Amino acid sequence: MREIEVSRITDVVERLCIEANNHLPGDVKCAIERCRACEDGEIAKGVLDNIIENYNIADRENVPICQDTGMACVFLEIGQDVHFVGGDLRLAVDEGVRRGYDKGYLRKSVVGDPVRRGNTGDNTPAMLYTEIVPGDQVKITVGPKGFGSENMSAIRMFKPSAGLQGIKDFILETVENAGPNPCPPMVIGVGIGGTFDKAALLAKKAIMRPLDTHHPDPFYAELEDEMLEKVNALGIGPQGFGGKTTAIGLNIETLPTHIAGMPCAININCHVTRHKTEVL
Amino acid sequence: MEKRITLPLTEELAKTLNAGDSVLLTGTIYTSRDAGHKRMCEALARGEELPFDPTDATIYYVGPTPAKPGQVIGSAGPTTSGRMDAYAPTMMSVGARGMIGKGARLPEVVEAMKKHSGVYFGAIGGAGALLAKCIKKCELIAYEDLGAEALRKLYVEDMPLVVIIDSEGNNLYETGRAEYLAKQNKRGL
Fold this sequence. Notes:
With 280 residues, chain A is of the alpha/beta class. Chain A is built from eight helices and ten strands. Chain A folds into two domains: 2-20 and 65-145, no CATH class; 148-273, no CATH class. The longest helix of chain A has 20 residues, at 42-61. Chain A is globular, with a radius of gyration of 19 Å. Chain B has helices at 11-14, 34-45, 88-93, 107-116, 128-132, 172-186, and strands at 2-6, 22-31, 58-60, 98-101, 119-122, 135-142, 151-165. In chain B, strands 2-3-4-5-7 form a five-stranded mixed β-barrel. Chains A and B meet through helix 3 of A and helix 5 and helix 6 of B.
């Protein structure tokens, strides 16, 4: 059994909140730059140039890429041989978010009650996901999630008879409905299978997966490529002004499901697809 | 080609702007988003004055990050405008002609724009660090308790925007995409 002080989790979460918000991952930058090279419309090229200039400024000056510094989604993969000591793990994560959003001059965008509203003032609580895995390490990922794009996400409980075509149509319908609202070019996460809740979590995990990777099953890997091409044929384009680049990536994650169902969730993200990981 | 324009957004100036124009905007604008709009519209319903003179004013839908020491403002890109659709016709009815944001608007907003010669500008969503560079002055004027959503008066210089919907109701989201798809069809793609 390996003991880990929860204060170490706080320190890492604090650091990751700031780094994720100020520095875009390399795979996302590569995808944007590749799309810029393929665009030929003047407005579309101009938008992508500004997006590139924007993340370069953020890198150089250590400032948030986007003012919506998101809800802090925190994923902990906890080795089963780890024993946390020195306090409550959940409180330690929230303390990391609180410090990171304060010290990093990040926007506090969380309300304490979904209906009655009221800003919590420190961006807590985090949206915390824990998973028990083999080993004695803890993998901590912080993915700040903006809501311009989160609001355009969708979930549907398909009958199995809807088949692959049902899923393909649903992806295109969701992107069409999103239109210019989620700050295209988007990143699209698709979760298929599991239960109602698991499908949504798969979709969220899909947007966190590097854009230069594929689903391990060739069937879904091909579907990722096919649907990215179809999404980009819609012509919505950067910021919705028309063009080739409606999405810079589309990742699919899957799980087994019930004989009676085929849940499918689509999590939409913007071009500021942020996440940062550290292992303790 | 970019058009340089200076505020206030008079009716005369508004009518020179067409959907698809790239503009560099200079002048005083006001920030507000969900909670601020709700309060302003409630104030108007009670017959009270707004915290600023809305005549020919332009409102930027933004909730910036806090300014670091030495910064005028933190990152400051647009938020999704559709959430302000419930309030925009009221704001235009008292003279606030310009809106800066991103994303689609409801038909009733476009109708109000045609009636009041309104203009809807798009700033690049997600380009908060870049857009902050154009903001030269920032002053908190009301609703301080709303934090990022408080009302601020900004002075901007050469803010890069695109006219999304003009005062005649032409919409770049419709025309830009249609033009792109028509071009693709012509190429037989």
